[in-house]
Amino acid sequence: MTADRPKARASRQIENERVVVTEWRFEPGAETGWHRHGYDYIVVPGMDGKLLLETSEGNSIAELQAGQSYFRPVGIEHNVVNANDFEFYFIEIELL
Length: 96
Description:
Blueprint: E1 9-15, E2 19-26, E3 40-45, E4 49-55, E5 58-64, E6 70-72, E7 78-82, E8 88-95
Antiparallel strand pairs: 1-2, 2-8, 3-6, 3-8, 4-5, 4-7
């Protein structure tokens, strides 16, 4: 995590033997902190907005639309940062 960035808030909604569902809320500039997913996962944005994705291979901006889900396999270590000037949230579904 970067010292000057606030931390995103994670709220676990479901956790069982098949899935983990987490709501992530980010105030402007907030980040998840560097992490690596141990499972394939799906992200469902709750609103339109932009996220900064930081990886060891470089940074990119993801432009997300409310309800437009995307899938990612187990992947590289990354950090997710709210690049908007408003609170942003999404639902993350990890497939166990």
